Amino acid sequence: MPNLKDLKNRIESVKNTRKITKAMQMVAAAKLRRAQEAAEQSRPYTERFNAVMGGLAASVGGSASAPKLLSGTGKDDVHLLVIMTAERGLCGGFNSNIAKLGRARAQELLAQGKTVKIITVGKKGRDSIKRDLGDTFVGHVDLTEVKRVGYENAQDIARDLLARFDGEEFDVCTIFYSKFVNVVTQIPTAQQVIPASFEETEDAGESTLYDYEPSEEAILADLLPRGVATQIFAALLENGASEQGSRMSAMDNATRNAGEMIDKLTIQFNRSRQAVITNELIEIISGAEAL
Amino acid sequence: MANTMQFDLVSPERSLASLEATAVQIPGADGDMTAMPDHAPTITTLRPGVLTVEATDGASQYAVTGGFAEISAEGTSVLAEKAMPVAEVTAADMDALIAQASDAAANATPEAKDAADKTVADLEALRAALNV
């Protein structure tokens, strides 16, 4: 049986832990709101962009002159997986869920005899991917210093990807990130960015006929690289919101667990104290009886 | 005939403007154009330049870099890679953009060289126009 002093220390330490997790939860809640706002503000751009690109891609897509970014290289031997995770831990299953999805895809592709190359964004994903798939690892994007993810960060990543694509280092590029649904639900998602795929717009058949300035092809060639950046930016923002949401619920759980533990320890503490008192009483009484 | 149309200016990071406009001057890649209500549906890419929006209660100006504009029956939307109100643009912003573009031009492949040089020239013209 642990003595009273030990129990007291234990309770104190769990109380401190609870304070920390509580604080982290509140910080995450505040950051989540900001991340969600950022994600919402970028949505109009992404939606319109995809709508226009969808229309353009549909009209140019079939022709032989379609840019490589849209039609692909004609092979799918080398796959580049961009796995986006957080820079920090303590956010529940967030990082490991994304890494798991990426790893499963990588192993599936390897089993099919394809070549896999992996770029990670975020320190946490790099650590876990490097352990298992170290030889396929080709690069890492460090966002540790970035306080607030901006479009420039997405552009940098996109530029790197495009340079690699032009250098024919890969045929297909897929990004892995977590889609934010709400605080308790984040869905790890894989999305193909090169060759570009756009969701079919529902009214594709009766869409307006546009004049294009310069030509359709020129616009498409100009916009496709931007499309990559846009998709990466949207993914980064979703990821940011997911990370905070995930951390918030993880910390909420941790706070609750700490509370339960404190209750249990307090009961144990009280029982031990009572036992000590009873013991002393018995000693006194038996001492008195002996006289 | 409608006298105004819906105008939206959005950048990836935020939506800058959403209002009823009477005319929008767009710095198109092939030359400036002015979109007024009932303009023929057009999609054009942008070059770095000044975008002027005229509304019933006055005009506002935005500096935009690349992107594209979509003019349709519902209105005009400009999706700019980077956009900010002209009053907020500082010399440092422009210098950073020009430096970045010059870098890109210096490293560009021969086919892309012309386009990259043009971007630099457009940015310099934009700086001159803004007079910062």
Question: What would the keywords be for this entry?
Answer:
heterodimer; A: 291 residues; Helix Hairpins; 2 domains; B: 132 residues; alpha+beta; ATP Synthase, domain 1; 5-stranded mixed sheet; 5-stranded antiparallel sheet; 29% helix
Please describe what this structure looks like.
The complex is a heterodimer of chains A (291) and B (132). With 291 residues, chain A is an alpha/beta fold. Chain A folds into two domains: 4-21 and 251-285, ATP synthase, gamma subunit, helix hairpin domain (Helix Hairpins, Orthogonal Bundle); 30-246, Pyruvate Kinase, Chain: A, domain 1 (3-Layer(aba) Sandwich). Chain A contains six helices and six strands; from the N terminus they run H-H-E-H-E-H-E-H-E-E-E-H. A five-stranded mixed sheet of chain A has the order 3-2-1-4-5, with helices on both faces. In chain A, helix 1 (4-60) packs antiparallel against helix 6 and helix 5 (151-166) crosses helix 6. Chain B is α+β, with helices and mostly antiparallel strands and 132 residues long. Chain B folds into two domains: 5-86, ATP Synthase, domain 1 (Sandwich); 89-130. Chain B has helices at 91-107, 110-130, and strands spanning 5-10, 15-21, 23-28, 31-35, 42-45, 49-55, 58-64, 67-72, 75-80, 83-85. In chain B, a hairpin with a 2-residue loop joins strand 8 (67-72) and strand 9 (75-80). In chain B, helix 1 packs antiparallel against helix 2 (110-130). Chain B is globular.
